[in-house]
C-alpha cells in the first residue's frame, strides 16, 4: 500500500480514480483523469517548501540504495566484510555492470520493515561499515573500475560500540583515502545525507544530489533542539539550514542536481533509476576524457573550494 503525505492527498484521490477507471475500461474518463493528474503534480511539486522536500527525502516508499542497485545493475556480485571485525549491513557494496560499464557501487541501506531496519541499523553505519566501503573502493582502484557511491543515512551510528571501534577515525580515513583514490568516482545523495555519515562516502570527482534529497551537518530535529530547545520548530530549522539540492547547488557545495521525475522517486522508481544511471554514465564519460593528472587536479580544486567565502 502506497504511503501519501499530507500535501499529496489530491494526487492520491486522482490515482485511486484512475485505478477505478482502468478496472471499468473507461478510456474517456481515463484520459481526463491523466490530464488532471499531470496538472496536480505540476502545481504541487513545483511549489514545494523545504520542509516538504525533507519529507520526500525521508519518504517510506522512496527507493533505497539496494533498490537502485537492483534496477540499474546487472551481473552483480556483493562484497562482504571489512576483514577486520564484521560485515556491517548498513553499507552494501557490489561489483557489476551499469550499461556496458563494469563498476563498483557502494551504498548506505536503511532497510524496510522492522526486521530489516534493525538488521541495517536504520541506515546508520558502524566503523566497520566505512572500512568495508574503503575496501571496496580500493578494490575498484586496483582493477581500474569506476566507483559510484549512493548516500542515504541520517548519520553515522553514535553508539558506544561504534565509538570503541573508533568511528571518527574510520570516517576521517575514508575522507583521506577517497580524496586520493586513483579511479573515476561519482557520489550521489539519493535520500538523506546526514553529517559525517554521508561525508564518509561523499568525497568524489563528481558530487550530485537527486532532486528531492537533502544534505546537512545535522538533522533539522537536532538543530531545533540545540538552538531553541524545541523539537517542534523542525520546519523553521529546515528552512534556515538550506539543505535542499537547489540550495546546495546555488551555494556551490555540490556539482549537479539529478532530475528525478517531478512526481518523485517514490512514485516513479524506474524513472528515477534511469535518471541516476544516465547521469552516472554521462559524467563518467566526461571524466574519462580527462587525463589522470587533470582529473586529480580538478578533484583537489573542488575539495579545497568548499567553505571558501568572500565578504
Descriptive tags:
single chain; 311 residues; alpha/beta; 2-enoyl-CoA Hydratase, Chain A, domain 1; 2 domains; 14 helices; globular
Detailed description of the structure:
This protein is α/β, with parallel strands linked by helices. It folds into 2 domains: about 10-45; about 50-305, 2-enoyl-CoA Hydratase, Chain A, domain 1 (Alpha-Beta Complex), CATH 3.90.226. The chain has 14 helices and 8 strands. Strands 1, 2, 3, 4, 5, 6, 7 and 8 form an 8-stranded mixed β-sheet that branches. Helix 9 (about 195-200) links the parallel strand 5 (about 185-195) and strand 6. The protein is globular. The mean pLDDT is about 95.
Write the layout of secondary structure elements.
Layout: H1 9-23, H2 27-45, H3 50-57, H4 65-72, E1 74-79, E2 91-98, E3 101-108, H5 113-119, H6 127-142, E4 147-153, H7 160-164, H8 167-180, E5 185-194, H9 195-199, E6 206-210, E7 214-216, H10 220-228, H11 234-241, H12 245-250, E8 256-258, H13 269-288, H14 292-305
Parallel strand pairs: 3-4, 4-5, 5-6, 5-7, 6-8
Antiparallel strand pairs: 1-2, 2-3
Helix pairs in contact: 1-2, 6-8, 10-11
Shape descriptor reads globular
E-strand count: 8
Main sheet summary: 8 strands, mixed
Q: What is the string of helix and strand elements?
A: HHHHEEEHHEHHEHEEHHHEHH
Indicate the structural class.
alpha/beta
Task: Provide the gyration radius in Å.
Answer: 20 Å
Number of individual domains: 2
CATH class of the largest domain: Alpha Beta
What is CATH's topology name of the largest domain? 2-enoyl-CoA Hydratase, Chain A, domain 1
Question: Which CATH architecture of the largest domain would you pick?
Answer: Alpha-Beta Complex
Helix fraction by DSSP (H/I, runs of at least 4): 40-55%
State the end-to-end distance: 51 Å
In quaternary terms, these chains amount to single chain
By CATH's scheme, which homologous superfamily of the largest domain applies? 2-enoyl-CoA Hydratase, Chain A, domain 1
Overall mean pLDDT score? 93
Q: Assess the beta-strand content as a share of residues.
A: 15-25%
